[in-house]
Structure formats: structure tokens, C-alpha cells
Amino acid sequence: MTIKQIEAEIDNEIAFDATLRNDAQRKAKRQQLLDEHPQYWEQQEILSLNKGKRESTFIELCLRRNEFSVLKIEKREAIARLELQANS
């Protein structure tokens, strides 16, 4: 079960709870049910770990792109030198 499914299930339960009379009560009940749900925090932890992995991968991708850009510039410079030597 995903986080969104858990939240939707709890929101549905709250929507039909006639004992909850105002928004503050609904919010408090929602948080209580989320805290008590056995899979919610497990899914939150998995999400957090995956976000961390995604960030690390994105940083690695940016590093590789920058390295590639530097290599392209170095190759262009080498080609330009060879062309200058050939024309001299």
C-alpha cells in the first residue's frame, strides 16, 4: 500500500465520521490515524531513502555532464591548436 492510498483511506474514514464537528478535530484525527497506521511510517522511510538516492544520482549526473563539457572544450582546444599549426 502506498502513502497516497493510506492517506486516501484515512481521509475517507474521516469524511464519514459524524463525531468530528470541525476542521481542527478532523486534522487531529487524521494525524492520529496516520501515526497509528502500521505501514505509513515504513512507507515514509522508504520514500525518504529513495529521495536521498535520487538526489545522489542527480548530483552524480550533474558531475558527469560537467566533466563531459570540460572534455569537449579540451578537445575543441586541441583541434584548434592543430589547425593553427597546420596553417602556419
Question: Can you give a write-up of this model?
Answer:
It is built from 3 helices and no strands. It has 88 residues and is mostly helical. The longest helix is centred in the C-terminal third of the chain and has 48 residues, at 40-87. The protein starts with a helix and ends with a helix. The model has no long low-confidence stretch (mean pLDDT 95).
From the structure above, extract its key features:
mainly alpha, rod-shaped
Give a short synopsis of this structure.
This protein is an all-alpha fold and 88 residues long. It has three helices and no strands.
Topology:
Layout: H1 3-15, H2 23-36, H3 40-87
Helix pairs in contact: 1-2
Radius of gyration: 28 Å
Q: How many E strands?
A: 0
Shape: rod-shaped
Strand content: under 5%
Task: For the record, give the distance between the C-alpha atoms at the N and C termini, rounded to a whole number.
Answer: 71 Å
Q: Percentage of helical residues? A: over 70%
Helix segment tally: 3
